[in-house]
Write a structure and sequence with these properties.
Blueprint: E1 11-17, E2 21-28, E3 33-40, E4 52-53, H1 55-70, E5 78-85, E6 89-93, E7 111-112, H2 120-128, H3 146-156, H4 158-162, E8 165-170, H5 171-180, E9 185-186, H6 187-193, H7 204-209, H8 214-217, E10 227-228, H9 240-246, E11 253-254, E12 258-259, H10 260-268, E13 288-293, E14 297-303, E15 313-317, E16 325-331, H11 335-343, H12 348-357, H13 362-373, E17 387-389, E18 407-409, H14 417-445, E19 451-455, H15 462-472, E20 476-479, H16 484-497, H17 503-510, E21 513-517, H18 524-549
């Protein structure tokens, strides 16, 4: 027998707060997810385009799922914790108690979600300033960023919220505060969503110009004047109270956090690709784009020098990978759009019953149904007369026009399951065509991209993945661990623990490739034509609106 004592396995906890659920994973030093748990969280929609959550509900869910994944594990083997979350806005008073972000005065609803579009008027006025900080968000600020939401709170809830507020947190920073008691912010959140710059910090003139000079007076204490790099250790680690809540040892390292999409990028983009015959092999990481596909989709590309891409957020220095500039394209509704189109169809009840009878998910059933009706054609060719413009929730990139609407061209009077399957396919293709639009805009500005790395819930759908490969003409890499966002969060915890010398080292060792999906180049001409039609759709929409606006 081997008498040598084995080195105990080191574990890291990754906690991910998505739009509708909180998930946690116990991950080892090789990036393997050993245990996983999830729990839904509540969303309130008190009126159209207003989406709210509760920070107390979110933290309770974080504690519940973390206790589940560490149950039975030797606490001494757990080395660090990393958080990621949606870029939602959390408001608390001077005693860190929740403050209502709504007219009803419901204090427990103290989070304005990332997808909340209440601040349309405010963002239009901010963009009209043409302030220099806007050049770092593609030239036009999104309504989903924090300055317009802050301005909305000041203008609409001045007495009940704005004047009582002690701190405004991005949700990832709120979580690291709950864990450590330290109000430090992550460079990722403040650079990507708040207009902080890594070289110059906050720009007083911007906040004064948009009417939020109050934030400048207290030296930005309310929105953060202590900024840490993602993965950097926060304070003295877990406080006794947080340790008890989470079921973890007091003092365990807690990392400066990331936005959820950026954690997904971290979990996939740095993986070792040797032996997979990919065009990005032996090329810098700048040849890759990480695409995080869930409720919405984000397209994360990095560069060694700043690249300003019209309609694409960034460049942000060190916001995801230290030392590299990040550009972030995105689509505001992707998984949410697919659900909306499928569940709103008259044949949806029939789909539900048939999927249940076959013991498959509705999307697995739809994919199989498309294979049945395609006959001799490739599946994608079924939509030769059916076209979708996917901006049902506005366009984030590259057109930055939140007033754009969704479009469907090619409807008939048919109402059956075949028609539901076709509109489902056309919607997936429209999302992939939107990705192509973003990638072409990034490449025209100076990016050199040859490989896509996909993660998130939609990456589990083989039709979604194949359409992205065929329509962009680029190979798609899927990670070995489907939960790449959680691996990204765990990478943060691993860095905070000191077990890796850098995020880059942790990315290479903990990010693993699972499968590669190659594009079918024989279908290129068809999808080139689909893309021509796709671009015509938005031209026509703008023409129609111009005609009606003259009424």
């Amino acid at each position: 027998m081997d008498s040598k004592k084995q080195t105990p396995v080191k574990y890291y906890v990754g906690i991910d707060v998505g739009s509708a659920s909180v998930r946690a994973a116990l991950v080892d030093g090789f990036g393997t997810v050993v245990a996983h748990a999830d729990q839904p969280i509540q969303i309130w929609e008190p009126q159209p385009d207003h989406y709210e959550q509760s920070s107390a509900d979110i933290w309770a869910a974080c504690c519940s799922v973390t206790k589940k994944v560490v149950c039975g594990v030797d606490a001494s083997q757990i080395r660090g914790v990393g958080f990621d979350a949606t870029c939602s806005l959390v408001v608390v008073d001077k005693q860190f108690q929740p403050l209502a972000v709504n007219c009803e005065g419901q204090n427990y609803r103290n989070v304005i979600m990332w997808m909340d579009h209440r601040a349309v008027s405010q963002v239009e006025r901010i963009n009209a300033t043409q302030h220099r900080v806007l050049s770092y968000v593609g030239g036009v600020m999104s309504v989903e960023m924090q300055p317009p939401k802050l301005l909305w709170l000041k203008e609409n809830l001045q007495e009940s919220c704005w004047e009582k507020a002690g701190y405004f947190f991005d949700l990832p920073d709120f979580l690291s505060w709950k864990a450590t008691g330290v109000t430090a912010r992550s460079l990722c959140t403040v650079v990507c969503k708040w207009t902080y710059t890594s070289d110059g910090g906050w720009d007083d003139s911007f906040w004064k110009m948009i009417g939020l000079e109050d934030l400048v007076k207290d030296k930005y204490e309310k929105i953060g004047n202590h900024v840490l790099s993602p993965g950097e250790s926060v304070g003295k680690g877990l406080t006794p109270e947080a340790a008890k809540d989470l079921g973890l040892p007091e003092g365990i390292a807690v990392a400066a956090s990331l936005i959820d999409a950026h954690a997904g990028g971290l979990g996939v983009i740095g993986a070792d690709v040797k032996g997979h015959n990919l065009p990005c092999e032996n090329q810098p990481i700048t040849a890759r784009v990480a695409m995080i596909c869930g409720t919405s989709s984000c397209h994360m590309g990095v560069s060694e020098t700043p690249i300003f891409v019209p309609g694409v957020w960034g460049p942000y220095f060190s916001a995801m990978v230290p030392g590299l500039w990040l550009n972030e394209g995105g689509q505001s509704a992707t998984g949410k759009l697919i659900d909306h189109v499928v569940q709103g169809h008259v044949a949806f009840p029939e789909l539900q019953s048939k999927a249940a009878a076959s013991a498959h998910s509705i999307y697995t059933y739809l994919n199989s149904h498309l294979d049945l009706i395609k006959k001799s054609l490739p599946v994608g060719f079924l939509t030769v007369d059916l076209h979708v413009w996917p901006d049902f929730h506005g366009n984030r990139s590259p057109l930055t026009d939140l007033t754009l609407k969704g479009m469907v061209v090619g409807l008939t009077l048919s109402r059956g399951l075949d028609e539901l399957a076709l509109i489902y396919l056309a919607t997936i293709q429209a999302i992939a065509l939107g990705t192509r639009h973003i990638l072409e805009t990034m490449q025209a500005a100076g990016h050199h991209i040859n490989t896509l790395f996909l993660c998130g819930g939609l990456s589990k759908n083989p039709l979604f993945v194949q359409m992205h490969a065929d329509i962009t003409g680029k190979p798609v890499v899927l990670s070995k661990e489907v939960e790449s966002v959680l691996v990204g969060a765990a990478i943060l915890g691993a860095c905070a623990s000191g077990d890796f010398v850098s995020i880059q080292e942790a990315m290479a060792k903990m990010g693993k490739i699972g499968r590669v999906v190659q594009p079918n180049h024989q279908h290129k001409r068809f999808y080139d034509k689909k893309y021509e039609v796709f671009l015509k759709l938005v031209e026509h929409q703008r023409e129609y609106r111009s005609i009606m606006n003259s009424f």
